[in-house]
DNA sequence: GTGTAACTAT
């Protein structure tokens, strides 16, 4: 068989690629002198990258004498796409020391790689390089920076980069709006959205996906509907990304009817949209519908992906119906979906939540390669079944085999301790999390430790712990303490705590209900009445919907 | 021919 290098590298259609046997192709390429021309080398590197033949790509790159910026960028992108961050970074550093200096696209590529691999420190380093090399106002670099920063929870950095642009283009706007949305600052996202429109910039699909991603709870439903209306107005709703974003937005708002309406308006919903719908039903607790749509999709003969399997397993786990779970497990085994650690973790979780911890542990033992997330699932399972000491053993085991615990590991461990009231062990774990493993506490960790302290009679300690927190305290943490006060019958502390909660968010009535129940338990009916009265007033004074559209 | 987007879970 013989190839024409020019046709080969210009006709980059996927079907064409699959016809080629890579070995033959490689033999041909290494024989051809033209292949080491930087122009062709660049295209061939891309071709190899699509075929996941990074070694061949690297070989060609190393043999090409006069490397252009394009060639450098292609090989760096190839490594970045294959999640080989170390290789991408070292090539980037090497490149920075050559005469062919990185351009704005090189930077944007390595910036994205930093964010995908959660390397904050490297991102800051690259950001510095961007500024030093004079790309600080380049839209290509800056949009990548904004996205990367916000993905790594560095929204202030992202804002700074955006704010430095005198005339942000649409991509820049989209990046920052999406950044705010995904960090949970939905209102900031909307504010920027309207500012952008006032400046005469027209939104596109990316923009609405960005704002929709910030709508994360039922109280924002009316805002979400406004966004949906906007999509209809601009005809974005037939865009697959927009449609999936809307489906999952509605499902986060517990509004599955609207989610289904969006879904059913699509002629050919893709796998992601199906996943969004199924996940939505599962989150809403409608496992019957979740299973029904899973089966519907299955009947169409579509090949599932692992995300869909994970989401349907979560649904069966919550339904605690082991029969469905076994069915899905069978499906996974039959269908030849590559059984990855994500699926295995979900299987372990499903079995343990359905009450068959032993089956979950069997899945765990059968796995050839165990990761931190599979250990996490087992630890959660053991904790759920009250086997805290076994959970702690698993923790020691994962440390011995060299795995690195993460936030979830500690949530699972604290939850396990909490479940059986292992006060001192829990404290120890909580301490090690920060001191030994340098993991930042999140709300859930505080919630567990407060519950653990509170339920084992150390209400004061729990209270002082919360008071010592430097940052603003999430209501969930105070809420945990409040329910402990309730359980221990400590009305004095309950009042103090409830006051804080009500200050924090006066619109939420749940805490007032809790406090009024505590009063009632103590026989303080006057206080109950007073509290109930403020509740109704507040309800009446609720703010009307936003009018930003 | 390189910058921004949808579904995962412990």
UniProtKB/TrEMBL annotation:
<dbReference type="InterPro" id="IPR046960">
    <property type="entry name" value="PPR_At4g14850-like_plant"/>
</dbReference>
<feature type="repeat" description="PPR">
    <location>
        <begin position="270"/>
        <end position="304"/>
    </location>
</feature>
<dbReference type="GO" id="GO:0009451">
    <property type="term" value="P:RNA modification"/>
</dbReference>
<dbReference type="GO" id="GO:0003723">
    <property type="term" value="F:RNA binding"/>
</dbReference>
<dbReference type="Pfam" id="PF13041">
    <property type="entry name" value="PPR_2"/>
</dbReference>
<feature type="repeat" description="PPR">
    <location>
        <begin position="68"/>
        <end position="102"/>
    </location>
</feature>
<dbReference type="InterPro" id="IPR046848">
    <property type="entry name" value="E_motif"/>
</dbReference>
<dbReference type="InterPro" id="IPR011990">
    <property type="entry name" value="TPR-like_helical_dom_sf"/>
</dbReference>
<dbReference type="Pfam" id="PF20431">
    <property type="entry name" value="E_motif"/>
</dbReference>
<feature type="repeat" description="PPR">
    <location>
        <begin position="169"/>
        <end position="203"/>
    </location>
</feature>
<keyword id="KW-0677">Repeat</keyword>
<protein>
    <submittedName>
        <fullName>Pentatricopeptide repeat-containing protein At1g64310</fullName>
    </submittedName>
</protein>
<dbReference type="InterPro" id="IPR002885">
    <property type="entry name" value="PPR_rpt"/>
</dbReference>
<feature type="repeat" description="PPR">
    <location>
        <begin position="371"/>
        <end position="405"/>
    </location>
</feature>
<dbReference type="Pfam" id="PF01535">
    <property type="entry name" value="PPR"/>
</dbReference>
